[in-house]
Automatic annotation (TrEMBL):
UniProt region (Disordered), positions on chain: 418-438
Pathway(s) this gene product operates in, as recorded in its UniProt entry: Siderophore biosynthesis; mycobactin biosynthesis
Species of the source: Mycolicibacterium vanbaalenii
MF terms in GO: L-lysine 6-monooxygenase (NADPH) activity
EC number(s) stated in the UniProt entry for this protein: 1.14.13.59
The protein's name: L-lysine N6-monooxygenase MbtG
UniProt entry keywords in alphabetical sequence: FAD, Flavoprotein, Monooxygenase, NADP, Oxidoreductase
Family: Belongs to the lysine N(6)-hydroxylase/L-ornithine N(5)-oxygenase family.
Length: 438
């Protein structure tokens, strides 16, 4: 009898989540544990979104999460009975501290008070881990995801990658904006491109759309530019500060009790700690700058008129919808990542498969509410892992950097269906034939 074929997990994006899963899989394979081969598909480079090339930063701003929440955090593995301590010890080889020691930076980092690294510094750490574990990487952009028998088929360039499971990561494209062809409206990518070139913005009235960390990073950058007023536009009643005490942080690193909360309680916790909130560090900077203003509302319409960008804001006040118009010299669309950016990639047969598993139309709410313990969409085979949508059902740490080690446990511990006969699966290159990261 032929041995069962090795399974393949394809990850779209080569950021922290992909690196964490690849590192955990490499250590498990080193322990003789059967886990899928991991291959990442990335259009730029490892950790691109933490560098200027990714369009989400200029690389010079500080990481909002402690770097000690690295690819193995919280180091509480539960995949291998009686050997989990060994697995955690193996993962410490890829920790933030190990990276600093290997690069002769540890003593200086401690002496400086353990500062948060820049985004560029964080990307260097992730690339170091990816290189150490020989993460398989395909350079290219996924153009289509379809179903081929009992596997996914991902088309990228002239190559088709077949996988038993797909994990989708990343915030999507940073190039979108409400008026994409007007130079007075900047997308996230356009803003950071200018920052990376040290081009100062000179304007009287600037608007930043968005109340989350993406917008917060932009405000942090705008402080040094020559602007008279900066208006933050968000649907929240004010600019809330992210909870960063022990009790809030525990929700991210240990979601054991998350499932015992009602959906209303979970949504409330997410609103207070993760979505549409600024870090305490950014809020302190805002308090010291009297140019900052806040406007509550959602942008319903945008038009260029009389040498200004006119934004129509819609708000709900007292049960009535109110619309107001405001003019700005420059608008920066920092409304944040699109958690559903990947949907256009799915072919019709893949969409049909998802709707069949969901038993309802394919929407963002339907996907969020269907994410199971392994961070995959319940009822859908082959496996589709969506950690970016797992906050509501599994805990607020999974969409971000707060529990990468736990994320990798969940994904690699997933149970796959029995393998199909060899003749029902079109052959493809084994992931160990892909070029490792260098």
């Amino acid at each position: 009898m032929n041995p069962a074929p090795r399974r393949t997990l394809a990850i779209i994006g080569a950021g922290p989540k992909a690196v964490a899963v690849a590192a955990k899989a490499a250590e498990l394979q080193g322990m003789g544990v059967d886990v899928p081969d991991v291959v990442a598909i990335e259009r730029n480079t490892v950790a691109a979104n933490w560098q200027a090339v990714g369009g989400w930063t200029d690389g010079q701003h500080r990481l909002g999460t402690s770097p000690e929440k690295d690819v193995g955090f919280p180091y509480r593995s539960s995949l291998v009975p009686r050997r989990n301590a060994e697995l955690d010890e193996r993962m410490t080889r890829h920790s933030w501290q190990s990276y600093l020691i290997a690069s002769a930076q540890f003593a200086e980092w401690v002496d400086r008070g353990r500062p948060a690294p820049t985004h560029w510094g964080w990307s260097r750490y992730l690339r170091w881990v990816a290189d150490r574990v020989g993460m398989s990487l395909i350079t290219g952009e996924v153009e289509r995801i379809s179903v081929d028998g009992q596997r996914w088929a991902l088309v990228t360039g002239g190559q088709t990658v077949h996988a038993d499971g797909v994990m989708i990561t990343g915030p999507g494209q940073a190039q979108r904006s409400i008026l994409p062809h007007d130079p007075r409206v900047l997308s996230i990518a356009q803003f950071w491109q200018r920052a990376a070139r040290n081009e100062l913005i000179v304007a009287e009235r600037v608007a930043v759309i968005g109340g989350g960390e993406t917008a917060a990073s932009m405000l942090n950058e705008l402080f040094r530019h020559r602007v008279s007023t900066i208006t933050v536009i968000s649907p929240q009643v004010t600019l809330f500060t992210r909870g960063e005490s022990f009790f809030e942080n525990t929700l991210f690193s240990d979601p054991t009790d998350w499932s015992s909360l009602t959906m209303a309680e979970r949504r409330d916790a997410l609103a207070r700690t993760d979505r549409g909130v600024f870090s305490a560090r950014v809020q302190d900077a805002l308090l010291a700058d009297d140019r900052i203003r806040h406007l509550r509302g959602r942008v319903a319409h945008a038009v260029a008129l009389e040498e200004r960008i006119r934004l129509t804001l819609s708000t709900n006040r007292g049960g009535e919808r109110l619309e107001t118009v405001h003019g700005f010299d420059l608008v920066i669309d920092g409304s944040g990542a699109d958690s559903m950016w990947f949907l256009p990639l799915f072919s019709q047969d893949a969409r049909d498969l998802l709707e069949l598993g969901l038993r309802r139309p394919l929407t963002g709410d339907a996907l969020q509410e269907s994410i199971g313990h392994d961070l995959a969409v319940c009822g859908v085979e082959p496996k589709l892992f969506l950690p970016g949508l797992a906050g509501l059902t599994q805990g607020p740490g999974f969409p971000n950097l707060s529990c990468l080690g736990l994320l990798s446990d969940r994904v690699l511990g997933s149970r796959y269906p029995d393998a199909a006969p060899d003749d029902s699966i079109r052959s493809t290159r084994r992931s160990d034939e892909h070029q490792p990261v260098r």
